[in-house]
Design brief:
Elements lengths: L9 H14 L3 E7 L10 E7 L2 H19 L5 E3 L6 E6 L2 E7 H7 L1 H4 L4 E4 L2 H11 L1
Parallel strand pairs: 2-5
Antiparallel strand pairs: 1-2, 1-6, 3-4, 4-5
Length: about 130
């Protein structure tokens, strides 16, 4: 991902997205590494849950704000904003999936991409990552 003023690595973008999710108390954040999977649509999925439609919308807004504030970029595409049950944010190399808790279990994204390396994110990890972006 490139900004007119600077170049941001995928790792830095992941950190910004994760921090934005943590700021609004996302549940069960995981990073799914798809780089070794043939025909994957991107390098990483970041998946999380919210308890309500309102929280899923707040998570989306927080990610947008953190990324834009740091690098001046908007997602290429956002889907699911109207229903707020499953919001998808496309940042090219990274696709963010924000589920309402019951919908995440129903769609089973982690199981669909079972060959991906899945890394759960803890609160400590997120706070350290935010500091490394600055």
């Amino acid at each position: 991902m490139q900004n007119s003023n600077n170049q941001v690595s995928t790792e830095q973008l992941k950190n910004l997205i994760i921090y934005g999710l943590q700021e609004k108390k996302a549940i069960d954040i995981v990073i799914m590494d798809l780089r070794e999977i043939k025909n994957a649509v991107c390098d990483f999925f970041i998946v999380c849950s919210g308890n309500s439609d309102t929280q899923t919308d707040a998570l989306k807004t927080s990610v947008e704000a953190e990324v834009y504030k740091a690098i001046g970029e908007d997602p290429r595409r956002i889907e699911g904003q109207q229903r707020r049950e499953w919001i998808l944010m496309d940042y090219f190399d990274i696709v963010v999936h924000i589920f309402r808790k019951d919908k995440r279990k129903f769609y089973g994204l982690e199981e669909l991409w079972g060959d991906a390396e899945i890394t759960p994110i803890t609160e400590d990890t997120i706070q350290k990552k935010k500091r490394s972006v600055a």
